[in-house]
Amino acid sequence: MEALIKDGLFYFTVAVTLGGASVVAFSRSIIYAAVGLIFALMGVAGLYVYLSADFIAVAQVMIYVGGVVILILFALLLTQGLGTLELSNPQFNTPAAFVVAVFLAGILLFTLLGTPLFQNPSVYSATTKKIGNLLLSRYVLPFEIISVLIVVIIMGAAVMVRKELLVSSREESEDKSND
Fold it and tell me: Which of 8, 30, 65, 121 could bond 88 through an S-S bridge, CB–CB 3.0 to 4.6 Å?
């Protein structure tokens, strides 16, 4: 009975992931696509749990669902007129999409046939201690390089926003002086 429940939850997680991804791919509304992306990313986090990758699952939920997608939704809803846009992707090339889908299905089938399935670990163990030890010992240099890169990206974004604000304030002052 326990195996039946585990299998049922696994297939439910797969269905949620594929359903959310389908909504993202085929939705004409950008709001529905963003909500579908939430379901797809939550499903992927559930699949990470099945792979005993608890840290990656929590990071998936916190970073992508909790941060990126919610930020996208707020940006869409706060942008004037974009949240009510019904047709956000009018160009849908069905033949090209079919060719890409067949190609990807072939790759997935090749991978599925070459992968040994149903090898679940008998004992679940947390991975956060191993990841933390590796980040602070073996991978400390890439970890520090990524942190410096993130700081540079944040500074670049701040500079870009400041330039944009300066340009828009100059344009407003020129418009007022011309009136």
Answer: 30
In this structure, which amino acid lies at residue 155? M
pLDDT digits (tens, 9 = 90+) for 102-145: 999 999 899 888 877 666 655 566 777 888 888 888 988 988 89
Residue 134 lies in a domain: no
Chain CA centroid to CA 60, Å: 8
Question: Please, are residues 36 and 22 in contact by the beta-carbon 8 Å criterion?
Answer: yes
Residues counted in the chain: 179
Q: Which two structure tokens, joined as six digits, stand for 65?
A: 């669902």
Tokens at 83, concatenated: 């949240």
The answer to whether residue 167 is domain-embedded is yes
Q: What share of the chain is helix, strand, coil (3-state, %, to 5)?
A: 75, 0, 25
Helices (H), 82-139: 94-113, 128-135
- Verify that 113 and 95 share a domain, yes or no: yes
Instruction: Provide CB contacts within 8 A for 64, sequence distance 6+.
Output: 41
- Give domain status of residue 90, yes or no: yes
The reported pTM is: 0.58
Round to whole Å and give the CA distance between 8 and 41. 19
Structural domain range at position 176: 139-179
The number of C-alpha atoms within 13 Å of 34 and in the hemisphere containing its C-beta is 17
The first and second tokens of residue 135, run together, are 């980040």
